[in-house]
């Protein structure tokens, strides 16, 4: 499992796009060269705990142990079907030029009433961007 050499780790590191993965592989290259974990941490400017974790993961799981693990993150406020309905609502209400403009408050109220989701009004901008819409505001025309 730990049959890779210093050169192998360096070669793998240069092939990586992920900076985090490069750091892990460089740490293992230094470990193969006989550096202590404290020396590796100082040289790469990372914590010794991180180096310990990378070395342990490599020794137990091989290169697969160095990969990023999936993270759960916060669940989305709206499901994909709700996002589709919201997108349809926005398209239907913005295609009528004679009608009143659709405001953030209108969209926020729609989300609250239709989906029973209580979100911050600023979330409207986030969801609009995710759905591919852009927010346009008009400037006031002051007379001089």
UniProtKB/TrEMBL annotation:
InterPro entries: Homeodomain-like_sf, Transpos_IS630-like, Winged_HTH_dom. The keyword Amino-acid biosynthesis does not apply. Residues 100-137 form the Winged helix-turn helix domain. Transmembrane segments: none annotated. Keywords: Plasmid. It comes from the Bacteria. It holds the Pfam family HTH_33. The keyword Phosphoprotein does not apply. This is IS630 family transposase. It comes from Vibrio owensii.
């Amino acid at each position: 499992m730990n049959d890779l050499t210093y050169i192998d780790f360096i070669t793998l590191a240069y092939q990586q796009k992920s900076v985090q993965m490069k750091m892990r592989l460089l740490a293992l290259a230094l470990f193969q060269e006989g550096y202590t974990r404290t020396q590796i941490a100082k040289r790469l400017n990372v914590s010794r705990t991180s180096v310990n974790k990378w070395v342990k993961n490599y020794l137990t799981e091989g290169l697969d142990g160095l990969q990023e693990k999936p993270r759960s993150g916060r669940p989305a406020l709206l499901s994909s079907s709700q996002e589709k309905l919201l997108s349809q609502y926005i398209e239907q209400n913005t295609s009528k030029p004679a009608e009143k403009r659709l405001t953030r408050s209108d969209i926020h109220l729609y989300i609250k009433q239709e989906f029973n989701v209580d979100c911050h009004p600023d979330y409207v901008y986030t969801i609009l961007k995710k759905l591919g819409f852009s927010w346009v505001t008009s400037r006031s025309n002051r007379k001089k």
